[in-house]
């Protein structure tokens, strides 16, 4: 069977599985819809959390980014895993004990204020929508390359599937499809990684393989060889960082604290039966995540080595088939600057502007010709870093079924995260805005209907983002973390650990944190992108890391304002005492 | 004030003390674990990474290994240690949720 047929088969089968689960696990009550009935086993929840968490960015882009920036890529590895320690130790158990449906629910009750609830809803919607748009784009990329349908059709198919299980099943449907999606995506990630590790180092464990010796008889380890090869081509060595320490520190912190404040992850811990289950479940979640996150840097180094080996100094006409496949999607381009028919790869941007724009003609060697001007750099090859994981099996010459598997895995990663995000958006609207604020008189049945309508609308908006991606989407996904770190995390933490924190402090803190972080990012990314460099940054901290400063500001203001204004009422003091002890935890209840 | 009320009040107070000590023990555990969390990630993986790179482990430069592998393993272990230690504290102070499901009907 051809690779194409296998891909249709694998993706089709996985879709059938997700829809089957959706029909089997329909939500009958708001409790089913918001928190899957509150009876999810900690291991199951851990697996669902892992799929919820690992998005198209983790599956498709992360190894690619690390591949190109080497040690600087550690910020993503540390940031997106270390956040779980904070989540498990500081938030999840207490929010589970609190036992309601949504994150704004906690803020609203703890800070005895509808205004605080609304501010939290705004933060949540902003964070979640920027994030979900990126997922839909991921679905589009996978579809356009592997299924050879255009991006819009791909997004619509993806939307239809998410629609089925999130609108019908709510959290209950999402939980069990996410378990299936985790299995698909981790299998799809590990199989090519293990193959490639064996090919390059004879060691079947990628985590060890990328420290091992290359089996080409040179006696060098993978990383030593990579350092040397890259240095020869004019890049900086793979294992040395080029970002400043303070910036790396700030970015890592923003990603960590942001992870701990992301509503779609937090809400997963509302679904387990007990407080002790929430603690344990966070451990399982991180263990499942770590399997992929410790493999990703290995994949990154293998892929870079493979890429240089196959592309550099190869005649275009002798280039392997995958090169042409990816060139036709526009994610690879070659411009023969010195007219020798051979591809020279090296440091520096190959094209000006950086992204290729094809003029529709083919050159003498069969390559797609470009409108772009050549740059001074000797580098002739443009490679989009997003393709590193997707093209890896082809670069390594693995069989067709592995390539098909990776396609199914990429779709699973994008869909599982999109569904989780859409659920928190719809529950924030139906529960926090409608039931708790605007229409308190609606019955449970009506609330469930509104939740479904909100989910359906959110799916459609997300789909539109995928079909007509606003230019800023790719840039802002990483900033969702900065915003979550600066707006939601401190309010949640103080709500649990400080009895003195009151509504004035929380509202001031969340607003300042959000506005400060948003303004800094918007200024350097959209208003004055030409100033976006170390010279103009505040204390040398890039927009990616500014969430850390926003968070510190939030803490300072929330604590200061709370000291100067009235103590929270007795009722809230009792609420805090109650969430601090596990006993008497009740299943998430409706109030 | 009759003696019944007196006993009730006493048990309320001792229960509050119990909760207070439980919370302090919890904070102490958190502090210990977070020190480790900070040391392996921000310490070994970032600030000290360049210095640690002179040592080598499993064929990796040590700082690089912490940043891309080691810290992640430690994170996983930290959460399981936390879950276990908290279970011990819960039991010790009698505030555990072993019978959590039984109390579902309470407000």
Question: Can you tell me about this structure?
Answer:
The complex is a heterodimer of chains A (591) and B (107). Chain A is globular, with a radius of gyration of 24 Å. In chain A, α5 (74-98) runs parallel beside α11 (245-260), α7 (114-147) runs parallel beside α19 (503-527) and α19 (503-527) packs antiparallel against α20 (546-564). In chain A, the strands form 4 sheets. In chain A, strands 1-3 form a two-stranded antiparallel sheet. Chain A has a two-stranded antiparallel ribbon with strand order 2-8. Chain A is mainly α and 591 residues long. Chain A is built from 21 helices and 8 strands. Chain A has helices at 3-24, 30-35, 42-53, 56-69, 74-98, 103-110, 114-147, 151-201, 206-209, 222-232, 245-260, 263-266, 275-311, 321-328, 387-395, 400-438, 444-467, 473-497, 503-527, 546-564, 570-580; strands at 314-315, 332-334, 342-343, 351-352, 358-362, 368-370, 373-374, 381-383. Chain A has 2 domains: 3-306 and 398-470, Hydantoin permease, CATH 1.10.4160; 332-383, no CATH class. By secondary structure, chain B is mainly α. Chain B has a domain at 33-92. Chain B is 75% helix and 4% strand. Chain B has 3 helices and 2 strands, in the order ααββα. Chain B has helices spanning 3-47, 49-52, 62-92, and strands at 56-57, 60-61. In chain B, strands 1-2 form a two-stranded antiparallel ribbon. The radius of gyration of chain B is 22 Å and the shape is elongated. In chain B, 32% of the residues are buried. At the A-B interface, α5, α11 and α13 of A face α1, β2 and α3 of B.
């Amino acid at each position: 069977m051809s690779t194409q047929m296998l891909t249709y088969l694998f993706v089709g089968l996985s879709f059938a599985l997700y829809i089957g689960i959706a029909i089997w696990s329909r939500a009958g009550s708001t409790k089913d819809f918001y928190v899957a009935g509150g009876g999810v086993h900690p291991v199951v929840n851990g697996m669902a959390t892992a799929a919820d968490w690992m998005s198209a960015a983790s599956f498709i882009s992360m190894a690619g980014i690390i591949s190109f920036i080497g040690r600087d890529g550690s910020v993503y590895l540390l940031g997106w895993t270390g956040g779980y320690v904070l989540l498990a130790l500081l938030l999840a158990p207490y929010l589970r004990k609190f036992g309601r449906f949504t994150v704004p629910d906690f803020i609203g009750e703890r800070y005895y204020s509808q205004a605080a609830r609304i501010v939290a809803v705004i933060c949540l919607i902003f964070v979640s929508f920027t994030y979900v748009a990126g997922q839909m784009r991921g679905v589009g990329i996978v579809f356009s390359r592997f299924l050879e349908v255009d991006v819009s059709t791909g997004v619509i198919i993806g939307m239809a599937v998410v629609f089925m299980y999130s609108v019908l099943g709510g959290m209950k449907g999402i939980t069990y499809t996410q378990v299936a999606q985790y299995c698909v995506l981790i299998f799809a990630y590990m199989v090519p990684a293990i193959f490639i590790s064996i090919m390059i180092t004879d060691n079947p464990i990628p985590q060890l393989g990328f420290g091992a010796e290359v089996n080409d008889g040179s006696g060098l380890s993978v990383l030593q060889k990579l350092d040397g090869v890259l240095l020869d081509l004019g890049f900086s060595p793979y294992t040395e960082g080029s970002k400043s320490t303070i910036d790396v520190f700030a970015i890592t912190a923003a990603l960590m604290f942001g992870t701990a404040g992301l509503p779609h992850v937090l809400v997963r811990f509302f679904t387990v039966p007990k407080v002790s289950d929430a603690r344990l479940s966070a451990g399982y979640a991180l263990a499942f995540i770590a399997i992929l996150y410790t493999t990703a840097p290995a994949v990154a180094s293998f892929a870079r080595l493979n890429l240089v080996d196959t592309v550099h100094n190869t005649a275009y006409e002798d280039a392997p088939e995958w090169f042409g496949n990816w060139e036709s999607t526009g994610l690879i381009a070659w411009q023969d600057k010195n007219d020798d028919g051979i591809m020279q790869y090296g440091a520096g941007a190959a094209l000006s502007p950086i992204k290729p724009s094809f003029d529709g003609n083919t050159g003498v060697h069969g390559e797609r010709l470009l409108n772009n001007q050549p740059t001074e750099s000797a580098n002739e090859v443009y490679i989009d870093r997003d393709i590193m994981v997707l093209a890896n099996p082809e670069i390594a010459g693995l069989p067709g079924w592995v390539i098909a598997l990776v396609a199914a895995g990429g779709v699973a990663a994008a869909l599982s995260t999109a569904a989780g995000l859409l659920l928190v958006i719809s529950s924030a609207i139906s529960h926090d805005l409608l039931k708790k604020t605007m229409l308190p008189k609606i019955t449970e049945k009506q609330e469930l209907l509104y939740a479904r309508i909100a989910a359906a609308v959110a799916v459609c908006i997300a789909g539109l983002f995928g079909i007509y991606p606003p230019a800023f989407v790719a840039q802002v996904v990483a900033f969702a973390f900065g915003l979550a770190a600066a707006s939601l995390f401190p309010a949640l933490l103080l709500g649990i650990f400080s009895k003195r924190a009151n509504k004035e402090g929380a509202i001031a803190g969340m607003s300042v944190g959000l506005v400060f972080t948003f303004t800094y990012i918007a200024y350097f990314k959209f208003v004055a992108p030409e100033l976006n460099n170390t010279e103009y940054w505040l204390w040398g901290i890039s927009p990616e890391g500014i969430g850390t400063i926003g968070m510190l500001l939030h803490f300072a203001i929330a604590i200061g304002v709370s000291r100067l204004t009235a103590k929270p009422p007795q009722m809230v003091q009792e609420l805090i005492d109650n969430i601090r002890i596990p006993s008497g935890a009740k299943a998430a209840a409706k109030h | 004030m009759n003696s019944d009320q007196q006993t009730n009040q006493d048990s309320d107070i001792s229960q509050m003390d119990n909760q207070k000590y439980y919370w302090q023990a919890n904070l102490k555990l958190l502090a210990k674990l977070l020190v480790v969390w900070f040391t392996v990630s921000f310490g070994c993986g970032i600030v000290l990474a360049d210095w640690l790179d002179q040592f080598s482990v499993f064929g990796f430069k040590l700082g690089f290994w912490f940043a891309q592998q080691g810290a992640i393993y430690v994170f996983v272990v930290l959460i399981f240690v936390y879950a276990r230690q908290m279970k011990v504290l819960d039991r010790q102070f009698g505030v555990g949720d072993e019978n959590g499901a039984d109390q579902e009907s309470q407000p």
